[in-house]
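Schema walk-through. Below, the input block comes first and the output block second. Nothing else is stored per chain. Lengths vary across the set, and this one has 301 residues.
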Amino acid sequence: MAEQQGQGRWLSGLSEGYAEIGDVRLHYVEAGDGPLIVLLHGFPEFWYSWRQQIQPLAAAGFRVVAPDMRGYNLSSKPDGVAAYDTDKLAADIRDLISERGAQSALLVGHDWGGTAAWATAMNHPEVVDRLAILNAAHPRKLLQGLHHPGQLRKSWYFFFFDLPGVPESVVHANQWHFFRHFLHDARPAYTPEEMDRYVEAWSQPGAATGMINYYRSSVRTSPKRAEAALVPIKAPTLVIWGQDDGYLGPELAEPDHDDVPNLDRVERLLGASHWVHHDEAERVTQLLIDFFAPAKPAENS
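--- output ---
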C-alpha cells in the first residue's frame, strides 16, 4: 500500500477522500468493511475527534466514515450564514451516505454533529437505520433549555458568536486560546500533538468563520420555525451522555417520548465531560458496537 498522505496518515488503516455533494466537497476518512457507520464531529473538532473510535469500530466489523462537516478543516466552507442551516447539514449527510455507495447508515453524532444527526433522522428517515447521540440535546429540549437562566449561562457563546466579525478576531488571538479553552475540561487532557492537529484544522482558510456560522445560523432561526420542523424520529436511538458536561445541563439528555418513540435508553457516564467519547473512549466504543450489532448480518453457525 502506498504511504498514506495528508491527515489520513495520523491513524493507521485509514483511507482518505473527498465526496462531491451538491455545492460542497466533504473531506472524510474511512476504514473497515461491513455496515456503514457515519461519525459526525462537533464544535470545535473535526474528523479527528473520533480517533479513538474509528479503528475499534472497523475491527468490530463495520465500515466507518468520519467526515469533516461543511465549514470545517478540509471540507468546503461556503459563504454566508444561510449555508449552515440545519436542513443543509442534514442534506449533506444524506448525500454523503449515497455518495459512499450505501442506501442507509448507522449514524453517530456528538455536539453539533449530534444536532445534524437528529436533523438527518427527522428529515431523511430512510437513510438512518440506527441513531446514536453523544451530548447533543434533542432540538426541542435545547429550545426549552434556552428559556432557563442556568442553561442560558452555559450557552452564552451562542450569542457571542452571532456578533459580526468580532468572534473571528477573538478566536484567532493568543494561538487559538478561545477554541482551546472549549476543550480544557477533557480528561485526560488533550496531548500537545493532538492540540497541534486541532490548530492545523482551525487554521485552514475560512474555517473559523465556517465553524462560527453554525451558531449564527442557529441563533437567527426563529424558535417557531425550529419547532415546526420537528417530527418524530423512527430510528432506534441511543443517547450517551457525559454527566459532567459544562455546556449542556444533564436534564437535556432525555428526549420526549413523542419525539423519539424508539429510544433505546439514555446511558449516563458519571465523571465524563462534554467530550465523552474522549474521556470514556473504550466505554463509548463498546456501547456503539453493542447498539449497532443488530445491523450486522448473522454469522453462519
